[in-house]
Amino acid sequence: MSTANANNARTPLDSTSSRNATDTRKRSSNKLAKKSQKDKSKNGSTKGDAAGSAIINALFWVLSIGFVLGALALVPGPLQDRLLVAIGRLERKDTSGLYPVKTKILADREKRASIFRAFQHAWFGYERHAFGADEYHPVSQSGSNLTQSQSSGPSTSIGYTIIDTLDMFLLLSLNEDGASLGKSYRRTRKWLKEEHTFDVDANFNTFELTIRLLGGLLSAHWAEYEVGITPGLGTQEEEEDERFRASQTGASDANPASEEQGRKPFERSTRRNDEDDHYDPSDMLYLHKAVDLADRLMGAFTTRSGLPWSNINLKTRVGSSSDQEHGLVSTA
To answer: Where is 136: in which H helix or E strand?
Structure first.
């Protein structure tokens, strides 16, 4: 009797404990399920981030390769030719897989002729009204020089306009009508040889002397002496080739030229000189002028920092600061 009662007494407690245990297991399973869902969502977002990063990296490399190829395509050579062939802008040289070194460039003859006429108009006006002056004033049809002499004398030209125009003179003389510039060019060269000087007692801007005069003289020397451009007389290479072909065919009996003479550099042969001005590019006039100017410019670099003075006196070769530029230096 007592045993049965005891068992009956424990039954409600046991059922309560059983329910509590069941609830605990349910909560645990719910937590595990939520955790599993979180892990899945986290793994999904991680995979999504990885995929996005992979796409960004792929785009970066594609753009980088495209940029490099585009930059290389601007450089004349075999790669540029292959790219032009690939896009149909250039034909193969032959079926052997060789490509031409030079690409085909279509010339705008109308624009080229307009540029040539504009140069003729500007230069002939300067030559007519202000030849030798540093500046030309087309409205008043007069010229002036940029710097006043230190000795209170008249201003002296150092050939800003003439020297700055030499390289354009030489390039445009290659035009179909370039022979029309020959006489003016030889007059200009004669003025530089016989009348021009850098030995002027005045202060000049170092920057302008460097880019306009030193650069102009070196460019003109390269075009005339190294390349052999002779305004109005054709190029050195054309004359050499003509003599060489004549020597091979026997058509130049009066003045035979051997293969060695026909193919040697500039100084091995003489060009046709103009009898009026004794035009002789072999004197390397522009190079000698450039060296003279460079030696005079060295005085502008006698500073503690090595940066040049803004001004230089070409006669005394002494540098100085500019009042207009407040001591600043242009190194561009």
So the answer is: strand 135-137
